[in-house]
Amino acid sequence: MATAEQGLNSWLSATLDLLLSFLGFILVWYPMVSLGNAVLGFPISTSTSNLLVGVLALGGSYPVVAGDWSLGQLGEYIFVLIASALGWGLIGMIAVLASGMSISGSNPAPQAAVWAAAYLTAYIVVYETQRTIFS
After folding, report:
1. Contact at 8 Å (CB) between 39 and 112?
2. At 2, is the pLDDT very low, low, confident or very high (cuts 50, 70, 90)?
3. Minimal CA–CA distance to 84: which of 37, 121, 39?
4. Does residue 22 surpass a pLDDT of 80?
5. d(Cα 97, Cα 45) in Å, to the nearest integer?
């Protein structure tokens, strides 16, 4: 009986890890794919873009469950990514206001620049410096 219970717990744990990492990778990939599509002038449809995000998220989830990637490190990356996107967006807004420039709301390039800086910042903080945010 203990072996069956242990197998069920292992299966449930792996399933939960897969679902959490899938949702986490959707948060990571969606801004990059959708803004990249917008900057390039929408060469692919929105439904194809969403399908691409789903495929990338599912592919990224496998190493979390079966490999060396950590679900905790993915969570830290997402936290730093969102915080740095807000921070870089605030810095960009202040720079635009201080310079008196005008940026069109339909231009996705400034948003893409903010997210690119946020992705780079999150990568450096979480993976290069090996700092832990939550412990």
Report:
1. yes
2. low
3. 121
4. yes
5. 34
Is 77 within 8 Å of 132 (Cβ atoms)?
Answer: no
SS3 annotation, 38-65: HHCCCCCCHHHHHHHHHHHHHHHHHHHH
* Side chain identity, residue 107: N
CB 113 within 8 A of CB 92: yes
Between CA 54 and CA 61, with CA 58 as vertex, the angle to 5 degrees is 140
What average pLDDT does this structure show over 32-47?
A: 95
Tokens of 31: 């801004």
Place of tokens 């449809």: 45
Both tokens assigned to 57: 């998220």
The two tokens of residue 84 are 């740095």
**Model confidence, pTM:** 0.86
Helix (H, G, I), strand (E, B) or coil at 17: helix
